Automatic annotation (TrEMBL):
Species name: Spermophilus dauricus
Cofactor note: Binds 1 zinc ion per subunit.
Cofactor list: Zn(2+)
UniProt lineage: Eukaryota, Metazoa, Chordata, Craniata, Vertebrata
Protein name per the record: Betaine--homocysteine S-methyltransferase 2
Span of domain Hcy-binding: 1-294
The keyword Transferase belongs to this UniProt entry's keyword annotation: yes
UniProt subunit comment: Homotetramer.
Keywords: Metal-binding, Methyltransferase, Transferase, Zinc
Length: 352
């Protein structure tokens, strides 16, 4: 189980981007961001699960982001059920667990009706219970109040509960600090607490550090989890990358390299985070980078590393000496990659 692995000090590697990746591949529509692809194109979802598993993921998270009744009307139940089946099918091909996932609702900002919102969470939970997922994840919450409600509902099943907020160092949208958010979630009963989405690796690392400090100050214990964007976002304000002018169709220049992600994984590990994965923009090769960086601690490499030598060492076989010279860690760690885009700024001004 997830808690047994984390209690034993194991590194659990999450998966990565589904919505943005499947949009690029032509299976999801921007704007709605709902996961109807699990019933319309199950092979595409299965393939992406397989790629993350092969890259080193220990968790197959159900593709159920925004799959609640308020977003999908009558389709929500079939989508949740099929998503569980696809995740289980792939997880059983490796040493992976299935996590049933819910996210913030579209109605919280309108009325904050606790009973109505908890009913939406409970509907998805009933499917997860029927499909016997291994644990539960409440992710992508920008208001800690709603995240607490999610945790309270998910705890009803009696399985481990992870919760992540899509916040940066400034805290949630009601100005609750990351440390205070973590404390509220810990007191609500979450077993695993952290951040996901909205911000890139370095911003997310600062946020998780604040959460850890908040939990420590209150004497609360919880495992830490981080699943950042696969994009660089130093210019983001409180709302994160959704406020950048490049969102969502021109984010490619911001994509993190595999070497960036190796550094992210190491810094997360050094902070005491043992559940490390990614969110939007995190491709399978990014997950492989986490698995390769933390291979000494885990004791093995993922199957995808059979075709990838550490720190570019495979370039030793190249015929050109200047390319062979790149087959070393120092080269890639210190590289300042160019974008190849004349006159483009390095940062943007958020629209908000």
């Amino acid at each position: 189980g997830i808690l047994e692995r984390l209690d034993d000090g194991e590194v659990v590697i999450g998966d990565g981007s589904f919505l943005i990746t499947l949009e690029k591949r032509g299976y999801v529509k921007v704007g709605l961001w709902t996961p109807e692809a699990v019933v319309e194109h199950p092979d595409a979802v299965r393939q992406l699960h397989m790629e993350f598993l092969r890259a080193g993921s220990n968790v197959m998270q159900t593709f159920t982001f925004s799959a609640s009744e308020d977003n999908m009307e009558s389709k929500w139940e079939a989508v949740n059920a099929e998503a569980c089946d696809l995740a289980r099918e792939v997880a059983d091909k490796g040493d992976a667990l299935v996590a049933g996932g819910i996210c913030q609702t579209s109605v919280y900002k309108q009325h904050k009706d606790e009973g109505r919102i908890k009913k939406l969470f409970r509907q998805q939970l009933e499917v997860f219970a029927r499909k016997n997922v291994d644990f539960l994840i409440a992710e992508y919450f920008e208001h800690v109040e709603e995240a607490v409600w999610a945790v309270e509902v998910l705890k009803e099943l009696g399985k481990p509960v992870a919760v992540t907020m899509c916040i940066g160092p400034e805290g949630d949208m009601h100005d609750v600090t990351p440390g205070e958010c973590a404390v509220k979630l810990g007191k609500a009963g979450a077993n695993i607490i952290g951040v996901n989405c909205r911000f890139g690796p370095w911003t997310s690392l600062r946020t998780i550090k604040l959460m850890k400090e908040g939990l420590g100050a209150e004497g609360l214990k919880a495992h830490l989890m981080i699943q950042s964007l696969g994009f660089h976002t130093p210019d983001c304000v409180k709302g994160g990358f959704v406020d950048l002018p490049e969102y969502p169709f021109a984010l490619e220049p911001r994509v993190a390299t595999r070497w960036d992600i190796q550094k992210y994984a190491r810094e997360a590990y050094n902070l005491g985070v043992r559940y490390i994965g990614g969110c939007c923009g995190f491709e399978p090769y990014h997950i492989r980078a986490i698995a390769e960086e933390l291979a000494p601690e885990r004791g093995f490499l993922p199957p995808a590393s059979e075709k990838h030598d550490s720190w570019g060492s495979g370039l030793n076989m190249h015929t050109k000496p200047w390319i062979r010279a790149r087959a070393r860690r120092e080269y890639w760690e210190n590289l300042l990659p160019a974008s190849g885009r004349p006159f483009c700024p390095s940062l943007s001004k958020p629209d908000i």
